[in-house]
Structures are given as structure tokens and as C-alpha cells.
Design brief:
The protein is an alpha+beta fold and 176 residues long. The chain folds into two domains: 2-64; 82-174, Cupredoxins -  blue copper proteins (Immunoglobulin-like, Sandwich), CATH 2.60.40. Helices cover 35% and strands 32% of the residues. The strands form two sheets. The protein has a five-stranded mixed beta sheet. Strand 5 and strand 6 (128-134) form a beta hairpin. It is elongated. The two termini are 38 Å apart. The chain binds dinuclear copper ion.
Length: 176
């Protein structure tokens, strides 16, 4: 996956470099009648703007509904709150406990010992179920009630240095 992302980036970078080179080479040439060209370019730009809006607006609206922000405000429900203190370090997660019970609210108190991290909880299919920032000198409270038992993964979602990808932890959600 990373190799593919890298190859796509390389191709895109080549395109940008080509664009710059094209403009640099052409900049020496004089265009006497500039006005019609400018008009055409502006018309194209307006059209491009609306194409981009039409392409991205539905994608944005659709993906907004998938965001798990609502989980933060889910009602606590019955039973006692299980508290998990989570601290981000370069580059690991420190959890006060890694076993909780399904069907009862969990309160994650998330902070960081060094730089900004992002605390993302993923289910077994790597779908994001809840997320908050891990910031130094500040405790973010994230409430989530796991409806399904299983092993969940905590991944750092914000680039925080060389071994950012190593910030993995597991949390086991068991039956009552
Ligand atoms: Cu911590 Cu990325």
C-alpha cells in the first residue's frame, strides 16, 4: 500500500515538475494578442470550479455521515463507567488498562507526553469507531460504549515523527 502511494506521488510530482518546466520554457515567448486567451482561460477555470464542486460535494456529504464524532456524545447508559487513561509517547501508547467490558461506557482520558498524537480506535475490520486528539498538557475525554466484543486496535492518526506507524496498541473488549 505504501509503495503504491509512493509511486502515485512520484507520478504526480513528475506532472507538477513538467508543468513548471513548461511554463518556464514558454515564458520567454511573446504573445501579442493576449485577451482572447485570457477569456478562454477564465471560462475554463469557472467550468473546472463547478466540476470540482459537483465531484466533491456528494463525496463530502456521504463521508460526513460516516464520521464517528457522534460516538463521543453517546449517552452513558446503565452501568459504571470504565476509565482508561491513555498517553501517547513517541512512539507508543501507554494505557492504564487494556481490557474493558462491552455494553458499558468507557471513558478514555487521552493525553500526550511529548508531541501531538491522534488516538484512533479501530474495530477488527479496521473501521474507525472513535477518535480524539492526544495533546501534551491537556486531557481529552472520549466516551465510547463498545457494542461488540473483540480486539480493537488503537492507531496514531497524526504524523508525529519517524516511527509514527509503530504507535499501535490493542484493547480487548470482553463480555460482561
Ligand atoms: Cu503518534 Cu503519529
Amino acid at each position: 500500500m505504501q509503495t503504491i502511494a509512493w509511486q502515485i506521488s512520484l507520478v504526480l510530482m513528475a506532472f507538477v515538475a513538467f508543468g513548471f518546466a513548461f511554463v518556464a520554457i514558454r515564458s520567454g515567448r511573446r504573445e501579442d494578442d493576449y485577451a482572447p486567451l485570457q477569456k478562454r482561460a477564465y471560462r475554463l477555470r469557472t467550468r473546472l470550479f463547478w466540476v470540482v464542486v459537483l465531484a466533491f460535494a456528494p463525496a463530502m456529504i456521504y463521508t460526513l455521515f460516516e464520521l464517528p464524532y457522534g460516538a463521543t456524545y453517546a449517552s452513558p447508559g446503565s452501568g459504571s463507567v470504565q476509565i482508561v487513561e491513555a498517553t501517547g509517547h513517541q512512539w507508543r501508547w501507554e494505557l492504564s488498562r487494556d481490557r474493558v467490558v462491552a455494553g458499558q461506557p468507557v471513558e478514555f482520558r487521552v493525553s500526550s507526553a511529548d508531541v501531538n498524537h491522534s488516538f484512533g480506535i479501530y474495530d477488527a475490520n479496521l473501521h474507525l469507531v472513535a477518535q480524539t486528539q492526544a495533546m501534551p498538557g491537556y486531557i481529552n475525554t472520549l466516551r465510547h460504549t463498545f457494542s461488540e466484543e473483540g480486539t480493537y486496535r488503537i492507531l496514531c492518526m497524526e504524523y508525529c515523527g519517524l516511527a509514527h506507524h509503530n504507535m499501535l496498541a490493542e484493547i480487548h473488549v470482553g463480555g460482561q
